[in-house]
Design goal:
The protein has about 375 residues and is α+β, with helices and mostly antiparallel strands. It contains 16 helices and 12 strands. Strand 1 and strand 2 form a beta hairpin.
Length: about 375
């Protein structure tokens, strides 16, 4: 049997702010079984960094997992040669060179077009009115699903995220996710006759990927490619407004927007965990794991590991974030990392502070989530 020590959590509190509980786990039970999640959590950075690479022990192939059941088996739920074949098929759409040579100018044009309408208004909900549409417009272009609206793109992404983290089995959440995946399939069918050049749909179709895998991988791109940039754009703006001296460092050229994004991703972890299935009985640090046990590698906890980061609960853009594993650490390192960095650090953050002068909060900003985390709304105002 699984011999990991048991740690109970209050799900409501964990959703509101998982970091106090994760800090206690790192100290007292860094590998621990949490009954409320029916999973064994790995919470220390080094453990995750090492074990995530051991696909012979911790498999991404999870036939009974929520993502596979609701979205189909995408490359994130495959190991070895199957995973790498699909990753190579997608690479031409998301390579650093493609991002720099093709997507960057498109991202910037989309963001500027949106700001021409938004900036004169002088106030907005930054999550809903800036971060969401900027992220969604970029994702519509990358996937090739240009027939989908920004609102629909955000909606289907959130529905899939909620479905894949629906560990309590709420049937309404499952139904919303299923409606979202059907809508995506409708847009894929529409776009397949003439997919845009360099889009994920185009490169995977040209590589001969089968229909089921193509559909599942488009859904994967949407599930992570919308919420992570959306939440990181709004969240990093929020962090910089609350730390004006650090914002001043960037504006004075003493730090970069990428420094701010990297630190925010370490500190607030838009993607807080990745699940695995135990393949064979194994003992790690005196704890025996059994076949079919569910494991969560807690990236959000790794980013606040005291063994690697001084004062980890504070936002500090001058710190060295090299040890952070915000995009993963093993063979499933985020395929869209270059696109995310470009959209967030090169485009969305500098343009927000350039076109919304004296950007400021007008009300408290609530955060939610532990598997996926971000601000749920962000009322702001600026000078016009």
């Amino acid at each position: 049997m699984n011999t990991a020590p048991i740690t109970h959590i209050d799900l409501t509190s964990f959703l509101r702010d998982p970091y106090p509980a994760l800090a206690q786990m790192r100290v007292h039970a860094p590998i621990t079984f949490v009954p409320e999640l029916n999973a064994t959590l790995f919470t220390r950075r080094n453990d995750i960094h090492v074990q995530e690479k051991r696909v012979d022990l911790f498999s991404s192939d999870q036939p009974e997992g929520l993502m596979t059941q609701l979205m189909g088996q995408n490359m994130m739920r495959k190991d070895g040669a199957d995973h790498m074949a699909e990753r190579r098929s997608l690479f031409p759409a998301l390579s650093p060179r493609t991002v720099h040579d093709h997507w960057k100018s498109i991202f910037e044009a989309m963001a500027l077009d949106h700001l021409r309408t938004l900036a004169p208004k002088g106030k907005c909900d930054l999550v809903r009115d800036y971060a969401m549409p900027v992220s969604a417009a970029a994702l519509r272009a990358i996937t090739g699903l240009e027939s989908m609206s920004n609102v629909d793109m955000d909606g289907v992404s959130q529905a899939m995220i909620d479905g894949c983290s629906n560990f309590v089995g709420d049937p309404k959440v499952t139904a919303r996710c299923e409606r979202a995946t059907r809508l995506i399939d409708d847009h894929i069918k529409f776009a397949r006759t003439d997919p845009p050049e360099h889009s994920a749909l185009k490169v995977m179709q040209d590589a001969g990927m089968n229909d089921d895998s193509l559909s599942a991988n488009i859904k994967l791109i949407i599930s992570g490619g919308q919420n992570e940039p959306r939440d990181a754009i709004a969240g990093t703006v929020w962090a910089l407004i609350n730390h004006p001296s650090q914002l001043a460092m960037i504006l004075e050229g003493k730090a970069t927007w990428l420094d701010a994004f990297n630190e925010y991703a370490r500190w607030m972890a838009p993607i807080g965990m990745s699940p695995r299935r135990v393949v064979q009985q194994h003992t790690i640090e005196g704890i025996t794991l059994m076949p079919e046990d569910r494991v969560f590698f807690m990236f959000g906890s790794a980013g606040r590991d005291e063994a690697h980061f001084d004062a980890p609960d504070t936002f500090n853009i001058t710190r060295n974030t090299q040890a952070a594993i915000s995009f993963g650490a093993g063979p499933h390192f985020c395929a869209g990392a270059a696109a995310a960095r470009c959209l967030i650090a090169d485009i969305a953050l500098p343009l927000a502070f350039k076109h919304m002068k004296n950007l400021r909060l007008t009300a408290p900003v609530p955060f939610s989530g532990w598997a996926f985390r971000g601000p749920t709304k962000m009322p702001v105002a600026w000078d016009t």
